[in-house]
Amino acid sequence: MMFSNILPDDMPDGLSRSSGETILPDPVHEAWFLVDGEGRIVLSNKCAEKSFGLQKNALLVTLYPDLWQPVQAVIIGKTGHSVCSVRIGGRDYVLRVRAYRGGLSHRGALCSLEEKGRFEAIVEELFHFRRTTAELETIINSSHDGLWICDADAKVVRINPASERINGIKAEDVVGRSMKELVEEGFVNKSATLEVLRTGKVVHLLQETRTGRKLIVTGTPVFDDNGNIVRVVVTERDITEIEELHRELLEREALKNEYLEQILKLQLEEMMSHQIIARSPAMLKVLDQAVRAARVDSTVLLLGESGVGKGLIAELIHKYSHRAYAPFMKINCAALPDSLVESELFGYEAGAFTGARKSGKPGLLEVAHGGTVLLDEVGELSQETQAKLLHFLEDGRFTRVGGTKRRSVNVRIIAATNRPLDDLVRCGKFRQDLYYRLNVIPIRVPPLRERTEDILPLLDHYIRHFSRSMGAEKRLSPSVLRILVRYDYPGNVRELMNLCERLVAMSYGDVIGPEDLPEELGEMEKERRPSVDNPIDGAVEKGFREIIEEFEERIFKEMLSRYRTQQKIAEVLKINQSTVARKLKKYGLS
Ligand SMILES: Nc1ncnc2c1ncn2[C@@H]1O[C@H](COP(=O)(O)OP(=O)(O)OP(=O)(O)O)[C@@H](O)[C@H]1O
C-alpha cells in the first residue's frame, strides 16, 4: 500500500513528502512509524527500527499488544488522535497517535514514541543554550580585544565593538563583505582569515590598520565533523600603546641611569669637598665602591691598615644609604673585653651579671634599629660572640645576654679589620661561615704610602683645619712640605692628622719650618740635607733644583735673623730688594 498518496492535507508536524515519497522525521531519541489498518508497519524511522524492532511489515499487535490498542482506537475512528503513556522494557514513554484518512479503503495511523522526561531535558538544554549564548554575547561585546568571525568564504559574519574601536570602522561597513575586498580597499593591510583559509592552520600576524595602529592578530579555524572549515575566528590585540609604553620605558630607564650616574658624581664631589680627602686614583676607587655599596643593604667588609680611614668610609656608606636618618653605631671589638663586647652589642637582661643594671640594657643593635652598626676590629671577636653574630646575620634575630626572648631588629652590619681575616680563618681563630657572611662586599682601603698623591691635600686640609680650630694662621714651609710629602706614615692618615695638630699647636712662627718638626722627622731632614762642606750630598735623590732651593731657603732664613729689613739683606747679598721680597715670600718667611 502506498501511503504517499493518502497523506492528508493536515499532515502532522515532522512528516514531509518529497518527490512523491513519504519521509518520517529522524531524531535520534524519538521513534516514528506508520501503520495500516491491520497494524502492519508500513514505514519507520531509524530509532523505531533500532530501539523497538519496528521494521517494515512487522505487526504492531504481535510486537507490542499494549500499543496496538490505542493505535487501533484511532484507526477505527473512535478518536482523531490520542496521546497516552505506555511502558516498554521497564521505561515510560509517551505515545502520540494521529489518524490518516486516504480514502474509504485506506486507513492507518502515524505514531511517535518518546521517552518520558526527554522533552523536559530538551527544554532545559534549550534554556542552557540560551544562557550560554547570552554569556558569550556579553563576553564578545565587552572584550578589550577585537574579534572577527568569518565564514568559509572569508565573508565577515560579525565583529565586536572592540574591533570597531580599534579599526575605526562600523560593523555594518564590513559584515557580509569578503575579507579579500576589505584588504583591497585598505581596511587592513593583510588578513588572517585569508591565511587561515589558505593554510587550514592557526595563523599569527602583525597587522596595521588604516588609522596606523599596530595589531597582533591570531586567526583560528573552526572545523565541522567532516573536517571542513566552517568559521574563522580572528582575535586582534592593539599593541600600539604597548609599543609606545615600551619605548617610553626604555627612555626613562636611560634617563634614570643618567640621573643615577649624576647623583653618584655629585655624591663623590660632595664627599671630596668635605672631610674625606681623595685625589689618588686608588682612593677615588674606594669612594666609588662606597657610594655603590650605600645603595644596597648587603654586609660590607672594610679591609686596611690602622688609620687608613675605614671608619670614615663606614660612616660614608651609612650617610649615603637609605638608613641615613637612623643611628650609626660603632663598637671597637679590640678595645673591650670579650664579655663586654657581647653585652654592648646584644644588650643584657636584668641581673644578667654582677654589676648589670637592674632594668637590663639594650645593646647597640637595638639602639641602631633601622641604621648601621660598624664592628671595628671584627677579627678580635671571641668564638662565642662570633657564633651569636653569625645567627644574627642569618635571620636578624638575637637574644640579650642572660635572656631567652628572641628579638629582631633591622640593622646593616659593616665590619672592619686591619688583620687579614682569611689568615685568621685558616688558623681557626675566625669562623669561616661568619667570614663569608661578612665578606659580601669587600672594600680595601689602601695605606697612605700607596697613594702618595693624597698626602699633600691631606696636609693642606689638616693644617688649615687645626689652624682654624686654634685661631691661628699657620702654613708649612716648602722644605717641611717636601719632608712631609716623602714621609712614610706608618700610622697612615691618623698619624698625618696628629702630626698636623702638633705642628700647628707647637710651632713658634706662622711658618712651620724644619726646626718645628718632631725629632724623628728632623733627623730624616738632617740625613738628607747637604752639608756645607759637601753640598752635593743627597743629590741623587733630590736633583739640582731642590738642592739649590734648600740652600736658598737657609740663606734667606739666616739673613732675616741677622738683618731685619729687606733693604739690608738686598745690600748684603748684592741683589734687588724686589728679588729679596720674592724669595722671602717663596719660602714663607715674609
Ligand atoms: N681620606 C681622608 N680624608 C680625611 N681624613 C681622613 C681620611 N682618612 C682618614 N681620615 C681621618 O683619619 C683618622 C683615622 O681614620 P679612621 O679612624 O677612619 O681609620 P681606621 O682605618 O678606621 O683606623 P682603625 O683601624 O685604627 O680603626 C680619622 O680621624 C679620619 O677622620
Structure summarized in a few sentences:
This protein is α+β, with helices and mostly antiparallel strands and 590 residues long.
Topology:
Elements: E1 16-18, E2 21-23, E3 30-36, E4 41-44, H1 46-52, H2 60-63, H3 65-75, E5 81-88, E6 91-101, E7 107-115, H4 118-142, E8 146-151, E9 156-159, H5 161-167, H6 171-174, H7 179-184, H8 192-199, E10 203-208, E11 214-223, E12 229-238, H9 240-273, H10 281-294, E13 300-303, H11 310-319, E14 328-332, H12 338-346, E15 347-348, E16 361-362, H13 364-367, E17 372-376, H14 383-395, E18 397-399, E19 406-408, E20 412-417, H15 421-426, H16 432-438, E21 441-444, H17 455-469, E22 475-476, H18 478-486, H19 492-506, E23 511-512, H20 519-528, H21 539-542, H22 544-562, H23 566-573, H24 577-586
Parallel strand pairs: 13-20, 13-21, 14-17, 17-20, 22-23
Antiparallel strand pairs: 1-2, 3-4, 3-7, 5-6, 6-7, 8-9, 8-12, 10-11, 11-12, 15-16, 18-19
Helix pairs in contact: 9-10, 10-11, 17-19, 23-24
The structure holds adenosine-5'-triphosphate (ATP).
InterPro entries: AAA+_ATPase, AAA_lid_NorR, Homeodomain-like_sf, HTH_TyrR, P-loop_NTPase, PAS, PAS-assoc_C, PAS-like_dom_sf
Keywords: Aromatic hydrocarbons catabolism, ATP-binding, DNA-binding, Nucleotide-binding, Transcription, Transcription regulation
GO molecular function: ATP binding; DNA binding
